[in-house]
């Protein structure tokens, strides 16, 4: 979803129109390269017990999605669109000073750009090739509601949230003002086993889907997801707390601002030895494009860090990797001259290690890929900057925070319940 948020943020800043297409029976259009046979469907006479050889792909074939994407790619390239090397769902068409962009998600297509005539030609061509539904202005995409204001484009999942809350089966009348209680530490063997494992998994999975427009839930979902195999009563209590928070903020979403000046910033943070069971740290980062969140992550690190500096250094490498990818995507979308990108961290020691590419006794054991940040600093892609912990937006993705601090950071990130969402 990062690429979709990125595209919409660019379109909002450049005041490009956003359109949506839906392809009818997409998987029936693919051409098969292999010989695939099937039994004759029931109701069709078959006295000789013959089988059918498929000439086209159908739903249920393992290669159906791949063949459909190949068919659509060929059609877009026929119209002059070029597939991005950095994300195969992104297609770009350039002609003079004009640029048009398509993002494809299976059978859903988002169109935007400067040449509306070319977009109309593309719609007509795709309709003759596949039979499409022109849904007009982008308003609802993959369960995400898209609203428009003078300030920019708003992404929310209010409809999905209502369905989630109405079917969760918990009493949500008591209000919660943060996703998790302050200072909570969930452990694998805390309390009795919860009887309805499927319910726990289903609700956590739905919360995970909500994180597409709710970065405030990312850390919570990361925490609760660690216990999907054997959830305990304590984990369910935390899940109920999260659902009460969601009920209190069901209209919340992100505002992708119509910024006059497009800039890219990255914030990275970690919580050292946060996991009581494994003592592994938590990485958190968020990228802001024009002051709007387009990419974020909360993830437990894959190895134990020997110090808080090392944990922060690993988090910086994860953020630097995401910055590198986003910069390449933005270049394909016609957004240039963003370098150097500010990567903001609240650990002076980690910043010093990343800036100073010499051997350090205390970093000799760190994996080579974690030194990725150093290379990007030397290339001039990233500029490392210190900021106080109280202003660290990525803190939201590493630990539960006090309510006042949590709300302050969310407002700086562009999350709010005060925007007018579409009904």
Question: What do you see in this structure?
Answer:
- By secondary structure, the chain is an alpha+beta fold.
- The protein folds into three domains: 2-142, no CATH class; 156-248, no CATH class; 260-387, Nucleotidyltransferase, domain 5.
- It has eleven helices and 18 strands.
- It has helices at 2-14, 64-78, 116-130, 158-166, 197-210, 218-224, 233-248, 308-332, 348-355, 372-379, 403-413, and strands spanning 18-23, 37-39, 51-53, 82-83, 90-95, 98-105, 108-113, 132-137, 140-141, 144-149, 152-156, 253-257, 264-271, 282-289, 292-300, 341-345, 382-386, 415-416.
- The strands form four sheets. Strands 4-5-6-7-1-8 form a six-stranded antiparallel sheet, sandwiched between helices. Strands 9-10-11-12-18 form a five-stranded antiparallel sheet. A five-stranded mixed sheet has the order 15-14-13-16-17.
- A hairpin with a 2-residue loop joins strand 9 and strand 10.
- Helix 5 (197-210) packs antiparallel against helix 6 and helix 8 packs across helix 9 (348-355).
- The longest helix is centred in the C-terminal third of the chain and has 25 residues, at 308-332.
- Mean pLDDT is 92; it is low at 418-423.
């Amino acid at each position: 979803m990062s690429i979709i948020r990125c595209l919409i943020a660019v379109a909002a800043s450049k005041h490009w129109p956003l359109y949506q297409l839906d392809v009818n029976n997409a998987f029936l259009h693919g051409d098969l390269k292999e010989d695939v046979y099937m039994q004759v469907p029931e109701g069709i006479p078959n006295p000789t017990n013959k089988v059918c050889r498929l000439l086209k792909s159908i739903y249920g074939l393992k290669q159906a999605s791949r063949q459909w994407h190949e068919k659509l790619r060929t059609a877009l390239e026929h119209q002059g669109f070029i597939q991005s090397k950095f994300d195969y769902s992104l297609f770009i068409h350039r002609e003079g000073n004009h640029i048009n962009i398509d993002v494809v998600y299976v059978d859903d297509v988002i169109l935007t750009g400067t040449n509306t005539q070319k977009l109309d030609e593309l719609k007509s061509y795709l309709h003759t090739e596949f039979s499409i539904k022109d849904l007009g202005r982008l308003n609802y995409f993959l369960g995400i509601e898209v609203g428009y204001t003078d300030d920019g484009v708003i992404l929310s999942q209010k409809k999905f949230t209502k369905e989630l809350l109405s079917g969760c089966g918990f009493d949500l009348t008591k209000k919660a003002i943060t996703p998790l209680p302050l200072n909570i530490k969930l452990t694998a063997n805390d309390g009795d086993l919860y009887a309805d494992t499927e319910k726990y998994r289903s609700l956590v999975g739905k919360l995970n889907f909500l994180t597409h427009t709710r970065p405030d839930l990312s850390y919570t979902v990361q925490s609760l997801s660690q216990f999907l195999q054997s959830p305990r009563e304590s984990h369910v209590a935390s899940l109920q707390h999260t659902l009460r928070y969601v009920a209190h903020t069901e209209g919340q979403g992100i505002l992708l601002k119509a910024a006059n000046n497009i800039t890219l910033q990255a914030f990275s943070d970690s919580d050292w030895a946060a996991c009581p069971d494994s003592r592994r740290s938590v990485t958190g980062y968020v990228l802001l494009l024009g002051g709007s969140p387009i990419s974020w992550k909360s993830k437990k690190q894959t190895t134990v860090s020997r110090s808080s500096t090392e944990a922060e250094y690993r988090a910086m490498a994860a953020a630097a990797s995401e910055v590198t990818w986003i910069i390449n995507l933005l270049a394909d979308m016609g957004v240039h001259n963003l370098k150097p990108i500010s990567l903001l961290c609240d650990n002076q020691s980690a910043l010093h290690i990343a800036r100073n590419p010499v051997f350090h006794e205390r970093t000799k054991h760190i994996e080579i890929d974690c030194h990725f940040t150093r290379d990007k600093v030397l290339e001039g892609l990233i500029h490392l900057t210190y900021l106080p912990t109280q202003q660290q937006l990525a803190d939201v993705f590493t630990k539960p925070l006090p309510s006042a601090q949590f709300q302050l950071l969310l407002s700086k990130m562009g999350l709010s319940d005060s925007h007018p969402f579409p009904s």
